[in-house]
Specification:
The chain is mostly helical. It has two domains: about 15-55, no CATH class; about 90-185, Winged helix-like DNA-binding domain superfamily/Winged helix DNA-binding domain (Arc Repressor Mutant, subunit A). The protein is about 55% helix and about 5% strand. The protein is built from eight helices and three strands. It has a three-stranded antiparallel β-sheet. A hairpin with a 5-residue loop joins strand 2 (about 155) and strand 3. It is elongated and about 85 Å long. The protein starts with 13 loop residues before the first helix and ends with a helix.
């Protein structure tokens, strides 16, 4: 007795269909088999499902070398950092600094300066987290903004050359102190 079937459409990228068509032609010429691209797709799907049913791990592409991952920049594993915990007083102090800032870059710089006065090193994730929270995060310009403000921030990298954060420069400490005095002055 044949298994019941379900008539459904499967949508696939054009490139995959072209490859299946090419494979069907090659099998026809080399082996004399008369198979359609849809039949080949069904066989490949069934073979993959059998692997899953038998509990075999799906083979993945070989891991990239450290140098390749380093060059690409994205997809790197970041060193997990402790989540940033701020008290209500710290949050209100930071918000007082941000009142005067109109641009996203200015808010990001101010957040970085404020963090630098509180911590020895400004973690990338901490700065990103606060920048998102205070509407200063722009994916395309996040690192570029920090490079433009290199007079205030010195980049810190690990042994592999990955950016792990920033430290305040002498000019950054001076600027942070000026921000603090401006925020404490009565309006």
């Amino acid at each position: 007795m044949a298994q019941p079937t379900v008539a459904r459409r499967i949508v696939m990228p054009r490139q995959v269909w072209d490859e299946l068509t090419h494979l069907a032609e090659v099998l026809g010429e080399a082996r004399g088999l008369d198979v359609s691209p849809a039949e080949i797709a069904l066989l490949a799907l069934e073979a993959g499902l059998n692997e899953v049913r038998q509990g075999r791990p799906v083979r993945t592409a070989p891991a990239r070398s450290r140098q390749a991952a380093k060059k690409e920049g994205s997809g790197r594993r970041r060193r997990p950092s402790q989540p940033l915990k701020l008290s209500a007083d710290e949050r209100s102090e930071l918000e007082a600094f941000l009142v005067e800032q109109n641009s996203a870059r200015g808010r990001q710089r101010t957040i970085g300066l404020w963090l630098g006065t509180r911590r020895r090193r400004i973690e990338v994730e901490w700065l990103r987290e606060l920048a998102v929270e205070y509407d200063a995060y722009n994916v395309a310009n996040f690192a570029q903004n920090m490079k433009k403000d290199s007079a205030f921030f010195k980049e810190v990298r690990d042994r592999d050359g990955s950016r792990i954060g920033w430290k305040l420069t002498a000019a950054g400490l001076t600027q942070a102190k000026e921000l603090a005095t401006q925020a404490l002055e009565p309006a």
